[in-house]
Design brief:
Blueprint lengths: L2 H13 L12 H9 L9 E5 L4 H14 L4 E4 L11 E3 L2 E2 L2 H21 L6 H15 L4 E5 L16 E4 L7 H4 L3 H8 L8 E4 L4 H14 L2 E4 L5 E8 L2 E7 L4 E7 L4 H18 L10 H9 L8 E4 L3 E4 L5 H14 L4 E6 L7 H8 L5 E4 L10 H12 L4 E3 L3 H17 L6 E6 L2 H11 L22 H4 L1
Parallel strand pairs: 1-5, 1-6, 2-5, 6-7, 7-8, 13-17, 14-15, 14-17, 15-16
Antiparallel strand pairs: 2-3, 3-4, 9-10, 10-11, 12-13
Helix pairs in contact: 1-4, 2-4, 3-9, 3-10, 4-5, 7-8, 11-12, 12-13
Length: 472
Protein backbone atom coordinates (compact mmCIF):
# COMPACT_ATOMS: atom_id res chain seq x y z
CA UNK A 1 0.00 0.00 0.00
CA UNK A 2 1.42 3.42 -0.90
CA UNK A 3 1.89 5.99 1.85
CA UNK A 4 -0.96 8.25 0.73
CA UNK A 5 -3.43 5.37 0.92
CA UNK A 6 -2.10 4.24 4.29
CA UNK A 7 -2.26 7.82 5.56
CA UNK A 8 -5.93 8.05 4.59
CA UNK A 9 -6.59 4.72 6.28
CA UNK A 10 -4.87 5.81 9.50
CA UNK A 11 -6.68 9.13 9.56
CA UNK A 12 -10.01 7.34 9.14
CA UNK A 13 -9.16 5.04 12.06
CA UNK A 14 -8.34 7.99 14.31
CA UNK A 15 -11.40 10.01 13.24
CA UNK A 16 -13.62 6.96 13.90
CA UNK A 17 -12.78 7.25 17.59
CA UNK A 18 -14.71 9.44 20.02
CA UNK A 19 -14.62 12.83 18.28
CA UNK A 20 -12.78 15.93 19.41
CA UNK A 21 -15.95 17.73 20.50
CA UNK A 22 -17.14 14.73 22.55
CA UNK A 23 -14.82 15.46 25.44
CA UNK A 24 -14.63 13.31 28.56
CA UNK A 25 -12.51 15.48 30.81
CA UNK A 26 -10.34 12.99 32.71
CA UNK A 27 -6.64 12.20 32.76
CA UNK A 28 -6.70 8.52 33.73
CA UNK A 29 -6.58 7.12 30.19
CA UNK A 30 -3.91 9.58 29.05
CA UNK A 31 -1.78 9.02 32.16
CA UNK A 32 -1.92 5.28 31.57
CA UNK A 33 -0.95 5.65 27.90
CA UNK A 34 2.11 7.81 28.52
CA UNK A 35 3.15 5.44 31.30
CA UNK A 36 3.09 2.55 28.84
CA UNK A 37 5.07 4.66 26.35
CA UNK A 38 7.78 5.46 28.92
CA UNK A 39 6.59 8.98 29.78
CA UNK A 40 7.74 10.72 26.57
CA UNK A 41 6.13 13.96 27.80
CA UNK A 42 9.01 14.20 30.28
CA UNK A 43 11.75 13.90 27.65
CA UNK A 44 12.36 17.66 27.59
CA UNK A 45 11.02 20.92 29.05
CA UNK A 46 7.50 22.06 28.13
CA UNK A 47 5.87 25.42 27.49
CA UNK A 48 2.14 24.87 27.99
CA UNK A 49 -0.53 27.21 26.58
CA UNK A 50 -4.19 27.61 27.52
CA UNK A 51 -6.81 30.37 27.30
CA UNK A 52 -9.93 30.96 25.25
CA UNK A 53 -8.58 32.80 22.22
CA UNK A 54 -5.13 33.26 20.70
CA UNK A 55 -3.58 29.95 21.78
CA UNK A 56 -2.45 28.76 18.35
CA UNK A 57 -1.05 32.12 17.28
CA UNK A 58 0.82 32.41 20.59
CA UNK A 59 2.16 28.87 20.16
CA UNK A 60 3.45 29.71 16.68
CA UNK A 61 5.17 32.89 17.94
CA UNK A 62 6.70 31.06 20.90
CA UNK A 63 7.94 28.34 18.55
CA UNK A 64 9.51 30.91 16.22
CA UNK A 65 11.34 32.67 19.06
CA UNK A 66 12.67 29.38 20.43
CA UNK A 67 13.89 28.28 17.01
CA UNK A 68 15.64 31.65 16.55
CA UNK A 69 17.74 30.70 19.59
CA UNK A 70 18.88 27.48 17.94
CA UNK A 71 16.50 25.16 19.76
CA UNK A 72 14.74 22.24 18.09
CA UNK A 73 11.03 22.55 18.80
CA UNK A 74 8.06 20.24 18.88
CA UNK A 75 4.71 22.03 18.63
CA UNK A 76 1.30 20.46 19.22
CA UNK A 77 -1.76 22.58 18.39
CA UNK A 78 -5.41 22.05 17.55
CA UNK A 79 -7.62 22.00 15.63
CA UNK A 80 -6.10 21.82 12.16
CA UNK A 81 -7.11 23.90 9.16
CA UNK A 82 -6.56 21.48 6.27
CA UNK A 83 -4.42 18.46 7.18
CA UNK A 84 -4.30 16.54 10.43
CA UNK A 85 -0.49 16.55 10.19
CA UNK A 86 -0.50 20.32 10.90
CA UNK A 87 -1.16 19.54 14.55
CA UNK A 88 2.26 17.98 15.12
CA UNK A 89 5.17 20.14 13.98
CA UNK A 90 8.91 19.68 14.38
CA UNK A 91 11.12 22.72 13.79
CA UNK A 92 8.10 24.65 12.52
CA UNK A 93 7.06 22.15 9.86
CA UNK A 94 4.19 19.64 9.95
CA UNK A 95 5.42 16.06 10.11
CA UNK A 96 5.23 14.18 6.82
CA UNK A 97 2.71 11.37 6.21
CA UNK A 98 5.39 8.67 6.59
CA UNK A 99 6.24 9.87 10.08
CA UNK A 100 2.59 10.30 11.03
CA UNK A 101 1.81 6.71 10.00
CA UNK A 102 4.90 5.34 11.75
CA UNK A 103 3.98 7.12 14.99
CA UNK A 104 0.44 5.80 14.82
CA UNK A 105 1.62 2.25 14.27
CA UNK A 106 4.03 2.59 17.21
CA UNK A 107 1.40 3.98 19.59
CA UNK A 108 -1.78 2.08 18.62
CA UNK A 109 -0.95 -1.23 20.40
CA UNK A 110 -0.63 0.70 23.67
CA UNK A 111 -3.81 2.66 22.93
CA UNK A 112 -5.65 -0.62 22.49
CA UNK A 113 -4.33 -1.84 25.86
CA UNK A 114 -5.75 1.29 27.50
CA UNK A 115 -9.04 0.90 25.61
CA UNK A 116 -9.43 -2.60 27.02
CA UNK A 117 -9.07 -1.36 30.60
CA UNK A 118 -11.57 1.50 30.51
CA UNK A 119 -15.30 1.78 29.78
CA UNK A 120 -14.65 4.59 27.26
CA UNK A 121 -12.02 4.14 24.58
CA UNK A 122 -9.35 6.75 24.01
CA UNK A 123 -10.54 9.69 21.96
CA UNK A 124 -9.37 11.19 18.68
CA UNK A 125 -7.54 13.95 20.63
CA UNK A 126 -5.98 11.63 23.18
CA UNK A 127 -4.49 9.41 20.47
CA UNK A 128 -3.01 12.41 18.68
CA UNK A 129 -1.60 13.75 21.95
CA UNK A 130 0.13 10.42 22.58
CA UNK A 131 1.52 10.42 19.05
CA UNK A 132 2.86 13.96 19.48
CA UNK A 133 4.65 13.06 22.70
CA UNK A 134 6.18 9.96 21.09
CA UNK A 135 7.37 11.91 18.04
CA UNK A 136 8.88 14.72 20.12
CA UNK A 137 10.73 12.27 22.37
CA UNK A 138 12.01 10.22 19.43
CA UNK A 139 13.23 13.21 17.36
CA UNK A 140 14.40 14.38 19.98
CA UNK A 141 13.35 17.99 20.42
CA UNK A 142 14.81 20.48 22.93
CA UNK A 143 11.44 21.89 24.00
CA UNK A 144 7.76 21.07 23.49
CA UNK A 145 5.20 23.83 22.92
CA UNK A 146 1.81 22.35 23.82
CA UNK A 147 -1.60 23.90 23.26
CA UNK A 148 -4.40 22.46 25.36
CA UNK A 149 -7.42 20.98 23.61
CA UNK A 150 -10.14 22.10 26.05
CA UNK A 151 -9.72 23.74 29.44
CA UNK A 152 -6.49 22.71 31.11
CA UNK A 153 -6.80 20.83 34.40
CA UNK A 154 -8.25 17.68 32.85
CA UNK A 155 -7.03 18.15 29.28
CA UNK A 156 -5.03 15.30 27.76
CA UNK A 157 -1.96 17.52 27.39
CA UNK A 158 -1.87 18.14 31.15
CA UNK A 159 -0.01 14.90 31.82
CA UNK A 160 2.98 17.13 30.96
CA UNK A 161 4.28 19.67 33.46
CA UNK A 162 5.12 22.98 31.86
CA UNK A 163 8.06 24.96 33.18
CA UNK A 164 6.25 27.93 31.66
CA UNK A 165 2.45 28.17 31.47
CA UNK A 166 0.92 30.81 29.19
CA UNK A 167 -2.71 31.79 29.76
CA UNK A 168 -4.14 33.83 26.87
CA UNK A 169 -7.32 35.91 27.42
CA UNK A 170 -10.17 33.96 28.99
CA UNK A 171 -13.82 34.42 28.00
CA UNK A 172 -16.94 32.28 27.80
CA UNK A 173 -16.60 29.25 25.53
CA UNK A 174 -17.10 25.49 25.92
CA UNK A 175 -19.48 26.31 28.77
CA UNK A 176 -21.08 22.85 28.64
CA UNK A 177 -17.73 21.34 29.61
CA UNK A 178 -15.97 24.04 31.61
CA UNK A 179 -18.77 25.87 33.40
CA UNK A 180 -21.01 28.84 32.74
CA UNK A 181 -18.97 31.55 34.46
CA UNK A 182 -15.57 33.13 33.90
CA UNK A 183 -14.49 31.91 37.35
CA UNK A 184 -15.35 28.29 36.57
CA UNK A 185 -13.61 28.39 33.19
CA UNK A 186 -10.52 30.09 34.69
CA UNK A 187 -10.36 27.41 37.39
CA UNK A 188 -10.11 24.70 34.73
CA UNK A 189 -7.52 26.62 32.72
CA UNK A 190 -5.45 27.45 35.83
CA UNK A 191 -4.76 23.73 36.18
CA UNK A 192 -1.80 23.87 33.80
CA UNK A 193 0.09 26.14 36.25
CA UNK A 194 2.39 23.75 38.09
CA UNK A 195 4.64 24.11 41.15
CA UNK A 196 7.75 26.25 40.54
CA UNK A 197 6.60 27.12 37.00
CA UNK A 198 6.40 30.63 35.59
CA UNK A 199 2.82 31.66 34.76
CA UNK A 200 2.71 34.18 31.90
CA UNK A 201 -0.72 35.79 32.05
CA UNK A 202 -2.26 37.84 29.27
CA UNK A 203 -4.57 40.66 30.31
CA UNK A 204 -7.62 39.01 31.85
CA UNK A 205 -11.08 39.90 33.12
CA UNK A 206 -10.82 40.60 36.86
CA UNK A 207 -12.69 37.42 37.78
CA UNK A 208 -10.26 35.29 35.75
CA UNK A 209 -7.19 37.12 37.05
CA UNK A 210 -8.21 36.47 40.65
CA UNK A 211 -8.57 32.73 40.02
CA UNK A 212 -5.24 32.51 38.16
CA UNK A 213 -3.31 34.44 40.80
CA UNK A 214 -4.81 32.32 43.54
CA UNK A 215 -3.57 29.20 41.71
CA UNK A 216 -0.09 30.73 41.37
CA UNK A 217 0.04 31.31 45.13
CA UNK A 218 -1.33 27.85 45.97
CA UNK A 219 1.24 25.91 43.95
CA UNK A 220 4.25 28.15 44.55
CA UNK A 221 4.64 29.32 40.97
CA UNK A 222 5.91 32.74 39.94
CA UNK A 223 3.96 35.14 37.75
CA UNK A 224 4.49 37.57 34.88
CA UNK A 225 1.45 39.70 34.03
CA UNK A 226 0.78 41.55 30.80
CA UNK A 227 0.54 45.25 31.59
CA UNK A 228 2.60 44.89 34.76
CA UNK A 229 5.80 42.87 34.26
CA UNK A 230 5.67 42.92 30.44
CA UNK A 231 3.50 44.24 27.63
CA UNK A 232 3.03 46.19 24.43
CA UNK A 233 4.59 49.64 24.80
CA UNK A 234 3.49 50.93 21.41
CA UNK A 235 2.21 49.74 18.08
CA UNK A 236 1.59 51.30 14.69
CA UNK A 237 -0.03 50.02 11.54
CA UNK A 238 2.37 48.81 8.87
CA UNK A 239 1.93 47.31 5.44
CA UNK A 240 0.74 43.74 5.96
CA UNK A 241 0.84 43.95 9.75
CA UNK A 242 2.03 46.19 12.54
CA UNK A 243 5.18 47.70 14.04
CA UNK A 244 5.67 47.08 17.77
CA UNK A 245 7.74 48.05 20.75
CA UNK A 246 7.53 45.28 23.35
CA UNK A 247 8.64 45.40 26.96
CA UNK A 248 9.83 42.00 28.04
CA UNK A 249 10.63 40.74 31.51
CA UNK A 250 14.15 42.21 31.47
CA UNK A 251 14.47 44.09 28.22
CA UNK A 252 12.77 46.37 25.72
CA UNK A 253 12.59 45.28 22.09
CA UNK A 254 11.82 47.96 19.54
CA UNK A 255 11.27 48.13 15.80
CA UNK A 256 9.53 44.73 15.73
CA UNK A 257 7.54 44.01 12.60
CA UNK A 258 4.71 41.52 13.14
CA UNK A 259 2.98 40.44 9.89
CA UNK A 260 -0.35 39.86 11.66
CA UNK A 261 -3.25 42.24 12.25
CA UNK A 262 -4.92 43.42 15.44
CA UNK A 263 -4.13 44.49 18.97
CA UNK A 264 -4.89 40.95 20.13
CA UNK A 265 -1.97 39.63 18.06
CA UNK A 266 0.32 42.27 19.58
CA UNK A 267 -0.73 40.98 23.00
CA UNK A 268 -0.06 37.41 21.89
CA UNK A 269 3.42 38.50 20.76
CA UNK A 270 4.12 40.06 24.15
CA UNK A 271 3.08 36.84 25.91
CA UNK A 272 5.25 34.71 23.63
CA UNK A 273 8.24 36.97 24.21
CA UNK A 274 7.83 36.92 28.00
CA UNK A 275 7.42 33.14 27.94
CA UNK A 276 10.65 32.61 26.00
CA UNK A 277 12.49 35.06 28.26
CA UNK A 278 11.24 33.14 31.30
CA UNK A 279 12.19 29.85 29.66
CA UNK A 280 15.68 31.16 28.97
CA UNK A 281 16.10 32.14 32.61
CA UNK A 282 16.54 35.82 31.88
CA UNK A 283 17.76 37.47 35.09
CA UNK A 284 18.72 41.03 34.16
CA UNK A 285 18.60 43.43 31.25
CA UNK A 286 22.07 42.43 30.07
CA UNK A 287 20.74 38.91 29.54
CA UNK A 288 17.78 39.96 27.41
CA UNK A 289 17.20 37.93 24.28
CA UNK A 290 19.19 38.95 21.21
CA UNK A 291 17.18 41.83 19.78
CA UNK A 292 18.11 41.08 16.19
CA UNK A 293 16.98 37.47 16.46
CA UNK A 294 13.73 38.54 18.14
CA UNK A 295 13.03 40.91 15.24
CA UNK A 296 13.79 38.23 12.65
CA UNK A 297 11.64 35.64 14.42
CA UNK A 298 8.58 37.86 14.68
CA UNK A 299 8.96 39.08 11.09
CA UNK A 300 8.66 35.48 9.86
CA UNK A 301 5.63 34.51 11.93
CA UNK A 302 2.48 33.39 10.16
CA UNK A 303 -0.86 32.24 11.54
CA UNK A 304 -2.94 30.68 8.76
CA UNK A 305 -6.66 31.24 9.03
CA UNK A 306 -6.26 34.19 11.40
CA UNK A 307 -7.16 37.34 9.47
CA UNK A 308 -5.39 35.79 6.51
CA UNK A 309 -5.69 37.52 3.14
CA UNK A 310 -5.96 34.77 0.51
CA UNK A 311 -7.21 36.70 -2.55
CA UNK A 312 -7.23 40.23 -3.97
CA UNK A 313 -9.78 41.93 -6.23
CA UNK A 314 -11.85 41.58 -4.20
CA UNK A 315 -9.88 41.10 -1.02
CA UNK A 316 -10.92 37.86 0.69
CA UNK A 317 -10.01 37.38 4.35
CA UNK A 318 -10.25 34.13 6.32
CA UNK A 319 -10.63 34.17 10.07
CA UNK A 320 -11.15 31.30 12.50
CA UNK A 321 -12.98 33.27 15.23
CA UNK A 322 -15.56 30.98 16.83
CA UNK A 323 -16.86 32.82 19.89
CA UNK A 324 -18.04 36.38 20.61
CA UNK A 325 -14.77 37.54 22.20
CA UNK A 326 -12.76 36.27 19.26
CA UNK A 327 -15.18 37.83 16.80
CA UNK A 328 -14.97 41.19 18.59
CA UNK A 329 -11.17 41.09 18.21
CA UNK A 330 -11.53 40.20 14.53
CA UNK A 331 -13.96 43.07 13.88
CA UNK A 332 -11.73 45.57 15.67
CA UNK A 333 -8.65 44.43 13.73
CA UNK A 334 -10.41 44.73 10.36
CA UNK A 335 -11.70 48.19 11.16
CA UNK A 336 -8.21 49.26 12.19
CA UNK A 337 -6.15 47.66 9.43
CA UNK A 338 -8.38 47.81 6.32
CA UNK A 339 -10.24 50.59 4.54
CA UNK A 340 -13.23 48.70 3.17
CA UNK A 341 -16.28 50.74 2.30
CA UNK A 342 -18.24 47.57 1.57
CA UNK A 343 -17.62 44.27 3.35
CA UNK A 344 -19.64 41.10 2.83
CA UNK A 345 -19.52 38.30 5.35
CA UNK A 346 -19.66 34.54 4.79
CA UNK A 347 -20.58 32.88 8.07
CA UNK A 348 -20.77 29.22 9.13
CA UNK A 349 -20.54 28.11 12.74
CA UNK A 350 -21.16 25.08 14.91
CA UNK A 351 -24.68 24.92 16.30
CA UNK A 352 -23.38 24.53 19.87
CA UNK A 353 -21.59 27.89 19.72
CA UNK A 354 -22.93 31.35 20.62
CA UNK A 355 -24.01 32.13 17.07
CA UNK A 356 -26.15 35.10 18.09
CA UNK A 357 -23.25 36.59 20.03
CA UNK A 358 -20.84 36.25 17.11
CA UNK A 359 -23.27 37.71 14.59
CA UNK A 360 -23.96 40.64 16.92
CA UNK A 361 -20.24 41.47 16.93
CA UNK A 362 -20.18 41.32 13.11
CA UNK A 363 -23.29 43.41 12.45
CA UNK A 364 -21.63 46.87 12.67
CA UNK A 365 -18.81 45.69 10.40
CA UNK A 366 -20.67 43.94 7.57
CA UNK A 367 -22.92 45.37 4.87
CA UNK A 368 -24.54 41.97 4.45
CA UNK A 369 -23.92 38.37 5.45
CA UNK A 370 -24.30 35.06 3.61
CA UNK A 371 -25.00 32.28 6.11
CA UNK A 372 -23.92 28.83 5.04
CA UNK A 373 -22.74 25.37 6.09
CA UNK A 374 -19.22 24.02 6.61
CA UNK A 375 -18.00 20.44 6.35
CA UNK A 376 -18.58 19.56 10.02
CA UNK A 377 -21.59 17.52 11.08
CA UNK A 378 -21.93 20.05 13.92
CA UNK A 379 -22.44 22.96 11.52
CA UNK A 380 -25.64 24.94 12.07
CA UNK A 381 -28.27 24.61 9.37
CA UNK A 382 -28.04 27.67 7.07
CA UNK A 383 -31.77 28.32 7.34
CA UNK A 384 -31.61 28.40 11.13
CA UNK A 385 -28.52 30.57 11.05
CA UNK A 386 -30.15 32.95 8.58
CA UNK A 387 -33.13 33.36 10.92
CA UNK A 388 -30.83 34.38 13.75
CA UNK A 389 -28.92 36.71 11.43
CA UNK A 390 -32.16 38.34 10.22
CA UNK A 391 -33.03 39.24 13.81
CA UNK A 392 -29.73 41.08 14.09
CA UNK A 393 -29.04 42.42 10.58
CA UNK A 394 -32.58 42.72 9.20
CA UNK A 395 -33.86 40.41 6.48
CA UNK A 396 -32.69 42.62 3.62
CA UNK A 397 -29.04 42.19 4.66
CA UNK A 398 -29.09 38.39 5.00
CA UNK A 399 -28.73 35.61 2.43
CA UNK A 400 -28.18 31.90 2.81
CA UNK A 401 -26.53 29.17 0.76
CA UNK A 402 -26.45 25.43 1.29
CA UNK A 403 -22.78 25.08 0.34
CA UNK A 404 -19.75 27.16 1.32
CA UNK A 405 -18.54 27.47 -2.28
CA UNK A 406 -21.91 28.90 -3.31
CA UNK A 407 -21.83 31.34 -0.39
CA UNK A 408 -18.35 32.52 -1.38
CA UNK A 409 -19.45 32.96 -5.00
CA UNK A 410 -22.46 34.98 -3.84
CA UNK A 411 -20.33 37.15 -1.55
CA UNK A 412 -17.72 37.80 -4.24
CA UNK A 413 -20.50 38.88 -6.63
CA UNK A 414 -21.80 41.35 -4.04
CA UNK A 415 -18.28 42.69 -3.52
CA UNK A 416 -17.78 43.04 -7.28
CA UNK A 417 -21.06 44.97 -7.55
CA UNK A 418 -19.88 47.37 -4.86
CA UNK A 419 -16.52 47.78 -6.60
CA UNK A 420 -18.22 48.49 -9.93
CA UNK A 421 -20.24 51.18 -8.20
CA UNK A 422 -16.96 52.99 -7.67
CA UNK A 423 -17.05 53.07 -3.88
CA UNK A 424 -13.80 54.50 -2.49
CA UNK A 425 -11.72 52.20 -0.31
CA UNK A 426 -12.71 49.01 -2.08
CA UNK A 427 -14.85 46.01 -1.27
CA UNK A 428 -14.01 42.80 0.48
CA UNK A 429 -15.24 39.46 1.78
CA UNK A 430 -14.74 38.06 5.29
CA UNK A 431 -15.17 34.29 5.76
CA UNK A 432 -15.50 33.35 9.41
CA UNK A 433 -17.39 31.60 12.23
CA UNK A 434 -15.25 28.50 12.82
CA UNK A 435 -11.80 27.02 12.36
CA UNK A 436 -13.49 24.46 10.11
CA UNK A 437 -15.05 27.23 8.00
CA UNK A 438 -11.64 28.89 7.60
CA UNK A 439 -10.04 25.56 6.72
CA UNK A 440 -12.72 24.67 4.17
CA UNK A 441 -12.34 28.08 2.56
CA UNK A 442 -8.56 27.72 2.52
CA UNK A 443 -8.91 24.46 0.58
CA UNK A 444 -11.04 26.29 -1.96
CA UNK A 445 -9.03 29.51 -2.17
CA UNK A 446 -5.61 29.14 -0.58
CA UNK A 447 -2.18 28.21 -1.95
CA UNK A 448 -1.07 24.60 -2.40
CA UNK A 449 -4.51 23.17 -1.86
CA UNK A 450 -4.88 25.18 1.31
CA UNK A 451 -1.96 23.59 3.16
CA UNK A 452 -0.02 26.04 5.34
CA UNK A 453 3.54 26.35 4.11
CA UNK A 454 6.57 25.32 6.15
CA UNK A 455 7.58 28.16 8.43
CA UNK A 456 10.90 29.92 7.89
CA UNK A 457 13.09 30.57 10.89
CA UNK A 458 15.34 33.41 11.87
CA UNK A 459 19.06 33.10 11.31
CA UNK A 460 20.12 30.64 13.98
CA UNK A 461 23.21 30.64 16.19
CA UNK A 462 25.26 27.48 16.48
CA UNK A 463 23.28 24.63 18.01
CA UNK A 464 23.96 23.87 21.66
CA UNK A 465 22.82 20.74 23.47
CA UNK A 466 20.92 22.28 26.39
CA UNK A 467 20.04 20.45 29.56
CA UNK A 468 16.63 20.83 31.17
CA UNK A 469 18.27 22.77 34.02
CA UNK A 470 19.88 25.27 31.67
CA UNK A 471 16.65 25.79 29.78
CA UNK A 472 14.36 26.20 32.77
Amino acid sequence: MDIEARMREVEQEIVARRPEHSVDLALDRMAELVGLLGDPQRACPVIHITGTNGKTSTARMTDALLRSRGLRTGRFTSPHLVSITERICVDGAPIDPERFVAAYEEVIPYVQLVDARHPAEMSFFEVLTGMAFAIFADTPVDVMVLEVGVGGQDDATNVADGVVAIVTPISLDHTRLLGGTIEEIATQKAGIIKPEAVAVLAQQPLAAAEVLLRRVAQVGASVAREGVEFGVMSREQAVGGQQLVLRGLRGTYDDIYLPLFGSHQAGNAACALAAVEAFAGVSDEADALDEGLVREAFAMVSSPGRLEVVRRSPTIILDAAHNPAGMAATAAAIEEAFTFTHLTGVFAASRDKDVRGMLSELEPLLDEVVVTHNSSDRSMDPGQGAEIAADIFGEDRVRSAARLEDAIEDAVALADEAAEAGLPGGAGVLITGSVITAGDARRLLGPAGGMPQAEPTARQPARHSFTAGELS
